[in-house]
Amino acid sequence: MKIQNKRLFALILFVLISFVCISQEVKPPPQPDPPGPPGNPIDGGVLIGACFALFYGVKKLLGKK
Hints:
By secondary structure, the protein is mainly α. It has two helices and no strands. The chain has helices spanning 3-23, 44-64.
């Protein structure tokens, strides 16, 4: 290859690489969700645990008598 052909080939490569780099859009990361409002309701796990503790306590009290 002649030097002119090598220069033309290098020029074309640099131009194509720059187009590829420009075409990639950089997006900012998504914003996190805001925290929930205060006073969220008690979920089912806590409610079931409280009911279980209540029934267990009543059973123990009735079992002593």
